[in-house]
Amino acid sequence: MSTATHLLERPVPGIAVLRLNRPDSLNALTDDSVAALSATLDALARDTALRVLVLTGTGRGFCAGFDLGLADEAPLTAELGEAAAWTVRQEAFASLVTRLRALRAPVIAAVNGAANGAGLGLALACEVRVAAASAAFNAAFVKVGMSSCDIGVSWLLPRAVGTSRAFEMMLTGRHVKADEAERCGLVSATVPDAELMPRALALAREIAANDAFAVWMTKRGGWANLEAVGLHAAMELENRTQILARSTGELARAARRFKARKG
Question: Which of 1, 61, 126, 191 has a beta carbon 3.0–4.6 Å from 113's, enabling a disulfide?
Answer without folding.
Answer: 61
